[in-house]
Amino acid sequence: MKVLLPIHQAAGAERALVGGKTLALARLGAAGFQIPQALCVTTEAYRRFVESGGLRGAIARELGRKRFEDMRWEEIWDAALRIRTLFDRTAWPVDLDAALREGIRSAFGDRPVAVRSSAPGEDGVKASFAGLHESFLNVLGPAAVLDHVRLVFASLWSDRALLYRKELGLTPAESEMAVLVQEMVPAERSGVVFGESPSDPAQAVVESVWGLNEGLVDGTVEPDRWILLRGTGSVVSHHAPVREKRVIPGPAGTVLSNLPPDLSGRPPISDDEVCAVFRLALEAEAFFGSPQDVEWCFGKGLLHVLQSRPVTARSTPDGSDNRSWYLSLKRSFANLKTLRARVEGELLPAMGREAEALVSIDLPALDDGKLEEEIRRREAAVRKWEGIYKNEFIPLAHGVRLFGQFYNDKIAPEDPFEFTRLLSGTGMLSLERNALLNDLAQRLGADPLLAERVGRDGRGDAEFESRVGRLFRDYGDFFGSAGSEAGRRGVLSLLLEMSRRPPGAPGGSAGDGAALRDRFLSRFDGEARTFAEELLSLARDCYRLRDDDNIVLGRLQVALARAVEEKGRRGSGRGGEGAGPTGRAVPIEMLNDPSSPPGGGVPPIMESASFLQKDRQLVGHPAGPGFAQGPARVVRKSADLFEMRTGEILVCDAVDPNMTFAIPLAGAVVERRGGMLIHGAIIAREYGIPCVTGIPDAVHRIRTGDMLSVDGYLGIVTRQESNRRAASFR
Amino acid sequence: MEDAPALERIVRELLASQRLAVLSTETGGAPYSNLIAFAAAPDLKTLVFTTSRPTRKFSNLCGNARVSLLVDNRSNREEDFAEAAAATILGTAREATGEEGEASLALFLEKHPYLSSFARSPECAVFRVEVEAYYVVSRFQSVSELHVRR
Fold first, then answer.
1. Residue B32: pLDDT band by 50, 70, 90 thresholds?
2. Does the beta-carbon distance from A606 to B135 stay under 8 Å?
3. DSSP A669-689
4. Which candidate from B5, B77, B147 shows the least CB-CB separation from A614?
5. For residue A376, what are the domain limits?
6. For residue A381, how many C-alpha atoms fall within 13 Å in the half-sphere facing its CB?
7. A516 lies in the same domain as A368
8. Are A618 and B1 a contacting pair at CB < 8 A?
9. Which of A142, A244, A370, B103 is most buried, most CB within 10 Å of its CB?
10. Which residues contact A701 (CB under 8 A, 6 or more apart)?
11. Closest CA of chain B from A696, distance in Å
12. Most distant CA pair in chain B: distance in Å?
């Protein structure tokens, strides 16, 4: 079977060999439509590539770590990144490389091409989910084309595609990808046309932008939009945006540039051209027998078809389908820069001020009516910020992802998460707090008399007390019931425990970030270097802001909890109703993990009458490298943390910002919530502590005192029998 | 992560779908493994297999009744690493005779009718393994134990 097929030979090919996009274009080309010259890298090439590299098994293993339905969106993203890195690091088999290189060279020479996905399975999807797979524009030369073909192959397993794996029928053993290598049309004007509007079957929609289509498709450039009547072709309405930008070919790839003033004043296409584009859609519809969604451009005076596919209903998720929200988290660089400015400059300070204002209120001084009012006010504030958190803070995580993918494309590191080492040392709030704790612990460690006094009386000397006072003033909210005497005792016992750590214990922010950063930036010159620096700076800010927003939101949540507690205290004092009207648990889990069921309900672990189950080896995701053994400390609430002893394995459902102060004591961190970029994993890596995330039902399957081995390289937690350490030949 | 009922289902399917198991016995501190045909009782607490008396395994079992068996559904493809399941079985074996021997043989032949002449030959012994635990491995490295309640 052929690995490369010119498009004029593909009209009669099997869809399974060339994919939907190639087949549709080939058939249009054969019927006389204007299409760019193109070659199809067939699924046979994909098959030979993955089989020579042993990738089918690797993909299956990556996706089979746990039940797919147990995987959170972030874990799916992590898995997709690992798979992408595998493709990136797998060399082409020598004969395949030679055949493709020669074919591409003779067809295009060094002329620029577009490298587009052409998946056989895509057409099985009933609804349209744009951008499941990747396409790259303006790729120059056979070597670069082959690199990008590999990335398009990998995008068969992109996070977006994996979300829709059921609809796409994705299976590692059988799914394959073809790639369309298409000569770039030097397009001055581009767009899409829906022969039938997805929202009104009587209408058609034409959209157009200056420059390349990429800006329209990924949402960075707002198009002119015409609504037409399908029956007559007459224009019903024309929406003209503020035209500022266009996407044009750069030295390699594309760049977003300012639109010259003489172009911004008029639509990219004339009224006649709107009609021509609409006619093109009707002709394609007549040819295929169903309304078409056509991507087109004007280049060298001709109207070209770039791709054509049936119009499908836009996905209309029901309430339980979060997938379109996940897809919306993918943001462009420009969009993320705006978001960063807004979060850092406005939202985070505003949330901080609101938390400050709530904390400054003297709750015991309020009468019952006023307290009730205060609770409602705090509930409203928390609700409001939870919404902002979901819509504005969580998408910042994509800044980190965007950088990660860029870094991996450039460096192809063995560890797909090496890029996170360039992100640390940004002065996160939680690390500042931990540094204060560390200072106090060191003081106790250096002064045994003081430590003894603190242990005995719960009070130190004046200086020590003043520093503890400052810790509580600035960060008191973190320690759960820190306002109370019990909370204070808890923190002091934790400090004493920390003071007994041997010197050289993890101090945070260590690492080789600077060297990696220099190596990364040294790969770029000129404008490309500026871009790389900006992207790194964006990622570092996003990384820090994602931590800080959790911390500040935590303050608001604690403020609400305090008011509810106060009401509970009064109620129980009078033998009244108890926990207050709302009894609202602080929904940190819900916040950080919108996909988890409300109330954080964990289905009970089922038992069997015939067998007693003991979990021996639990598989999650490697989120912080390293190996540690020790007894488990299962933490369900903040107060459990005060029991932590040095070297214990912190096991929890989801590390929230109020808990991370105990991480420096832990031998390792294990959590149910999965992902590389979640709070607990970030802090564990900052301290160089092994971390495994995504262990299903971790707090239910592991008990405090169980002897655990935590392998942070492979993402495996092993329960040792009868509290023995793992056997060792070393 | 599977619960006990789901693990029990995995074990049941494995034992039903697989004709052969690897049996490990021991003599003089040296482990010894070979393939055997087996059948499982419906409650999964007992396994049955047959062996001729002059074999090494028979001799080993006379000296040490402790056994380990391995049953898996691998297909010798890359995907096995993600998709195959295996159960390591720990237990104690003893020869079944008389009525119990007949019942055990019937259970065995229900699954392996084509082994009838072998299993019924005079020098062939029927063994019952009393299972203590199944160690179930799935998804490459996920391991849970099922200990038989008696």
1. very high
2. no
3. EEESS--SSSHHHHHHHHTT-
4. B147
5. 332-427+511-592
6. 27
7. yes
8. yes
9. A142
10. A605, A615, A618, A695, B1
11. 6
12. 47
Which CATH number do you get for residue A118?
Answer: 3.30.1490.20
Do the domain assignments include residue A235? yes
Contacts of B45 in chain A (CB under 8 A): 610
Q: What local confidence, expressed as pLDDT, does residue A577 receive?
A: 40
CA dist., res. A77 & res. A437, Å (int) = 34
Q: Are residues A167 and A200 in the same domain?
A: no
What CA–CA distances, in Å, run from B6 to A70, A608, B1, B43?
15, 9, 9, 15
Q: What is the CATH number of the domain that holds B138?
A: 2.30.110.10
pLDDT in tens, A14-23: 999 999 999 9
Name the minimum distance, in Å, from the CA of B11 to any CA of chain A: 11
Nearest to A560 by CA among A390, A348, A354: A354
Query: Into how many domains does chain A fold?
Result: 5
Q: Which one is predicted more confidently, A246 or A72?
A: A246
ipTM above 0.90, yes or no: no
Q: Is the pLDDT of residue B90 over 90?
A: yes
Mutation pick from A171, A608, A709 vs chain B, by most beta carbons of B within 10 Å, is A608
Q: Are residues A144 and A10 in the same domain?
A: yes
- pTM summary value: 0.79
**pLDDT over 90 (residue A332):** no
Q: List residues of B whose CB lies inside 8 A of any A CB.
A: 1, 3-8, 43-45, 77-83, 134-135, 139-149
Q: Do B149 and A172 touch (CB under 8 A)?
A: no
- For residue A603, the model assigns a pLDDT of 58
Give the burial class of A541: count Cβ atoms within 10 A of its Cβ; 0-12 exposed, 13-18 middle, 19 or more buried. buried
Residue A326 lies in a domain: no
Confidence of residue A600 (pLDDT cuts 50, 70, 90): very low
Tell me which chain B residues have a C-beta less than 8 angstroms from the C-beta of A67: 1
Inspect the interface and report whether the beta carbons of A66 and B1 lie closer than 8 Å.
Answer: yes
Same domain, A171 and A209: no
Contacts of A606 in chain B (CB under 8 A): 3-6
Contacts of B83 in chain A (CB under 8 A): 60, 64
Q: Does B139 sit within 8 Å of A60, measured CB to CB? A: no
CA dist., res. A171 & res. B138, Å (int):
18
State the average pLDDT over residues B43-58.
Answer: 96
> Which residue in B has a C-alpha nearest to residue A173's C-alpha?
B79
